[in-house]
Amino acid sequence: MRRFKISLPAVILSLLLPIFLSGVAYSDVEVLQVSPMELTKADVRQLNSNPAILSISGNIQSEQKILRLDNETIRKMGLSSYMVRDPWLESRVTYTGVLLSHLLELTASEDYSSVLAIASDGYRYEIPATEIQRWPVLLAIENTPGEFGDKGPLRIIFPYDDHTDITMARNMSVWSVAELVVQ
Fold it and tell me: Looking at residue 49, which CATH number applies to its domain?
């Protein structure tokens, strides 16, 4: 049997180095930046994409009452990805999308308290701003392996592995998101 001597600083460095090199860590979730943010708040204020896959209304910074975003515009908001154990698929899945905090940084007024996520089938759930700021909540546009099927093209994803209240995280994970109302 071989024995290896490893110093404590080497162990700490080996644990921290991937965080500094590859992305941002929220709790134990490693969030990788896939593409940079290409839009500014000024760009977003005038958006009105057709055909839209997402509408954003409520307490927003826009010359219009409703922002309509297409897939390409959402992708320009900067994509991130992370792997979680999906409680519905019961497997590890890598999701890619825009962090909800980044999307709201570009679109929402600074004093928002929550976001009401509304699915195309009418399901809705209010996500508190504290959850959006604490966790890397994704507005996912793709997943690996496979497609969303009837649960897309947009889906709210939480780091289910780490969330302190898995039932709450599951309830906030709206599928087929069609509209966000900033409150």
Answer: 3.90.420.10
* 102 part of a folded domain: yes
> Which tens digits make up the pLDDT trace of 79-91?
999 998 888 778 8
Q: Give the dihedral sign, CA 129/73/29/157.
A: positive
Phi, psi of 43, rounded to the nearest 5 degrees: -60, -45
CA atoms within 13 A on the CB side of 76: 14
Q: How many domains are contained in the chain? A: 1
Per the structure block, which two tokens stand in for 121?
Answer: 């089938």
Q: Is residue 125 part of a domain?
A: yes
Q: Is the pTM of this model over 0.85?
A: no
CA-to-CA distance for 44 and 86, rounded, in angstroms? 31
Residues 6+ apart with CB under 8 A from 102: 37, 77, 78, 80
Check residues 24 and 129 and name the one with the higher pLDDT.
129
Range of the domain at 105: 27-182
Mean pLDDT of 100-124: 93
Q: Binning pLDDT at 50, 70 and 90, where does residue 15 land?
A: very low
Residue 18 lies in a domain: no
Structure tokens given for 157:
């994803």
